Amino acid sequence: MNDEDGGPARGSLPEVFRRVLERLDRFAPLPPGTRFLRTLGPGTPGPQAVSIAEREPATDVIEGPHTIFVTVELPGVSRKDIDLHATETTLVVSANSPSWKYYREIPLPAPVRVDVITATYKNGVLDVSLEKRDKTWRIPVN
Protein backbone atom coordinates (compact mmCIF):
# COMPACT_ATOMS: atom_id res chain seq x y z
CA MET A 1 0.00 0.00 0.00
CA ASN A 2 2.75 2.40 -0.97
CA ASP A 3 2.36 5.17 -3.50
CA GLU A 4 4.67 5.72 -6.48
CA ASP A 5 7.22 7.62 -4.32
CA GLY A 6 7.61 4.71 -1.90
CA GLY A 7 5.75 6.49 0.91
CA PRO A 8 2.49 5.37 2.43
CA ALA A 9 -0.45 5.61 0.07
CA ARG A 10 -3.06 8.17 0.94
CA GLY A 11 -6.48 7.74 -0.51
CA SER A 12 -9.89 9.03 0.14
CA LEU A 13 -11.57 7.89 3.31
CA PRO A 14 -13.96 5.53 1.45
CA GLU A 15 -10.97 3.99 -0.34
CA VAL A 16 -9.17 3.38 2.97
CA PHE A 17 -12.27 1.71 4.43
CA ARG A 18 -12.66 -0.42 1.29
CA ARG A 19 -9.08 -1.69 1.68
CA VAL A 20 -9.57 -2.42 5.38
CA LEU A 21 -12.75 -4.37 4.63
CA GLU A 22 -10.94 -6.35 1.90
CA ARG A 23 -8.29 -7.34 4.45
CA LEU A 24 -10.94 -8.36 6.99
CA ASP A 25 -12.69 -10.51 4.38
CA ARG A 26 -9.59 -12.71 4.22
CA PHE A 27 -10.19 -13.96 7.76
CA ALA A 28 -12.43 -16.96 8.37
CA PRO A 29 -15.87 -16.09 9.74
CA LEU A 30 -16.77 -16.99 13.31
CA PRO A 31 -18.53 -20.34 13.69
CA PRO A 32 -22.31 -20.18 14.10
CA GLY A 33 -23.37 -19.54 17.69
CA THR A 34 -20.09 -17.82 18.64
CA ARG A 35 -20.65 -14.85 20.87
CA PHE A 36 -18.80 -11.76 19.71
CA LEU A 37 -18.99 -8.34 21.31
CA ARG A 38 -17.50 -5.31 19.63
CA THR A 39 -16.07 -2.72 21.96
CA LEU A 40 -15.70 0.76 20.57
CA GLY A 41 -14.71 2.64 23.71
CA PRO A 42 -16.55 4.24 26.63
CA GLY A 43 -20.31 3.90 26.44
CA THR A 44 -20.20 0.64 24.46
CA PRO A 45 -22.77 -1.88 25.69
CA GLY A 46 -21.18 -4.47 27.97
CA PRO A 47 -21.68 -8.24 27.99
CA GLN A 48 -24.98 -7.82 29.81
CA ALA A 49 -26.40 -6.37 26.58
CA VAL A 50 -25.59 -9.57 24.66
CA SER A 51 -28.53 -11.95 24.39
CA ILE A 52 -28.38 -15.40 26.00
CA ALA A 53 -26.90 -17.87 23.54
CA GLU A 54 -28.29 -21.36 23.01
CA ARG A 55 -25.96 -24.34 23.17
CA GLU A 56 -26.17 -28.07 22.88
CA PRO A 57 -24.87 -29.67 26.10
CA ALA A 58 -22.30 -32.45 26.03
CA THR A 59 -23.92 -35.84 26.50
CA ASP A 60 -22.92 -39.46 26.96
CA VAL A 61 -25.29 -42.38 26.35
CA ILE A 62 -24.44 -45.86 27.65
CA GLU A 63 -26.64 -48.85 26.93
CA GLY A 64 -26.67 -51.64 29.48
CA PRO A 65 -28.55 -54.95 29.26
CA HIS A 66 -31.67 -53.58 31.02
CA THR A 67 -31.00 -49.85 31.43
CA ILE A 68 -29.87 -46.87 29.38
CA PHE A 69 -27.73 -44.31 31.23
CA VAL A 70 -27.55 -40.73 29.94
CA THR A 71 -25.16 -38.11 31.35
CA VAL A 72 -25.65 -34.46 30.40
CA GLU A 73 -23.28 -31.61 31.34
CA LEU A 74 -25.21 -28.48 32.40
CA PRO A 75 -22.69 -26.17 34.11
CA GLY A 76 -24.08 -23.17 35.94
CA VAL A 77 -27.66 -24.41 35.91
CA SER A 78 -29.90 -24.58 38.96
CA ARG A 79 -31.84 -27.82 39.53
CA LYS A 80 -35.17 -25.94 39.31
CA ASP A 81 -34.27 -24.64 35.81
CA ILE A 82 -33.92 -28.12 34.26
CA ASP A 83 -36.78 -29.43 32.13
CA LEU A 84 -36.70 -33.13 31.24
CA HIS A 85 -39.13 -34.96 28.92
CA ALA A 86 -39.01 -38.52 27.61
CA THR A 87 -40.76 -40.60 25.00
CA GLU A 88 -40.04 -44.26 24.31
CA THR A 89 -37.31 -43.30 21.84
CA THR A 90 -36.14 -39.77 22.78
CA LEU A 91 -34.95 -37.86 25.84
CA VAL A 92 -35.32 -34.05 25.66
CA VAL A 93 -33.26 -31.88 28.01
CA SER A 94 -33.61 -28.10 28.25
CA ALA A 95 -32.22 -25.78 30.90
CA ASN A 96 -31.40 -22.13 31.47
CA SER A 97 -28.41 -20.59 33.20
CA PRO A 98 -27.62 -16.87 33.54
CA SER A 99 -25.46 -16.97 30.40
CA TRP A 100 -26.61 -19.99 28.37
CA LYS A 101 -29.76 -21.73 27.24
CA TYR A 102 -29.22 -25.47 26.83
CA TYR A 103 -31.33 -27.73 24.60
CA ARG A 104 -30.75 -31.26 23.36
CA GLU A 105 -32.91 -34.02 21.91
CA ILE A 106 -31.15 -37.31 22.56
CA PRO A 107 -32.20 -40.35 20.51
CA LEU A 108 -32.22 -43.46 22.66
CA PRO A 109 -30.67 -46.71 21.37
CA ALA A 110 -33.67 -48.80 22.48
CA PRO A 111 -37.29 -48.17 23.52
CA VAL A 112 -37.69 -47.29 27.21
CA ARG A 113 -40.46 -47.33 29.80
CA VAL A 114 -41.40 -43.69 30.35
CA ASP A 115 -42.98 -44.53 33.72
CA VAL A 116 -39.66 -45.78 35.19
CA ILE A 117 -37.10 -42.96 34.88
CA THR A 118 -34.81 -41.56 37.55
CA ALA A 119 -32.73 -38.38 37.33
CA THR A 120 -30.16 -36.81 39.66
CA TYR A 121 -28.31 -33.51 39.31
CA LYS A 122 -25.06 -32.75 41.11
CA ASN A 123 -22.13 -30.40 40.39
CA GLY A 124 -23.42 -29.42 36.93
CA VAL A 125 -23.97 -33.01 35.76
CA LEU A 126 -27.39 -34.54 35.12
CA ASP A 127 -27.54 -38.35 35.33
CA VAL A 128 -30.63 -40.07 33.94
CA SER A 129 -31.43 -43.80 34.15
CA LEU A 130 -34.06 -45.18 31.79
CA GLU A 131 -35.34 -48.74 32.04
CA LYS A 132 -35.53 -50.53 28.71
CA ARG A 133 -38.89 -51.75 27.57
CA ASP A 134 -38.88 -55.52 27.14
CA LYS A 135 -39.08 -56.10 23.40
CA THR A 136 -39.92 -59.77 23.68
CA TRP A 137 -43.11 -61.35 24.93
CA ARG A 138 -43.57 -64.91 26.03
CA ILE A 139 -46.40 -66.45 24.09
CA PRO A 140 -47.97 -69.49 25.71
CA VAL A 141 -48.56 -72.38 23.36
CA ASN A 142 -51.72 -74.43 23.97
Task: Report on the architecture of this protein.
Residues 35-50 have low confidence and may be disordered. It contains one helix and eight strands, in the order αββββββββ. The radius of gyration is 26 Å and the shape is elongated. The strands form two sheets. It has a four-stranded mixed β-sheet with strand order 1-6-5-4, with no helix packed on it. It has a domain at 53-132: Immunoglobulin-like (Sandwich), CATH 2.60.40.790. The protein is mostly beta strands and 142 residues long. The N and C termini lie far apart (94 Å).
What's a concise summary of this model?
9% of the residues lie in helices and 38% in strands. It has one helix spanning 13-25; strands spanning 53-55, 59-63, 67-73, 82-86, 90-96, 100-107, 112-122, 125-132. The protein starts with 12 loop residues before the first helix and ends in a 10-residue tail after the last strand.
CATH topology of the domain at 53-132: Immunoglobulin-like
Order of helices and strands: HEEEEEEEE
Largest sheet: 4 strands, mixed
Total DSSP E strands: 8
Helices, by number, come to 1
Q: Report how far apart the termini are.
A: 94 Å
The residue fraction in helices comes out at under 10%
Structural class: mainly beta
Strand content: 35-45%
Mean pLDDT: 77
Give the neighbour order of strands across the main sheet. 1-6-5-4
CATH architect. name of the domain at 53-132: Sandwich
Contiguous runs where pLDDT drops below 50 for at least 5 residues: 35-50
CATH C-level label of the domain at 53-132: Mainly Beta
Radius of gyration using CA atoms only = 26 Å
The general outline is elongated
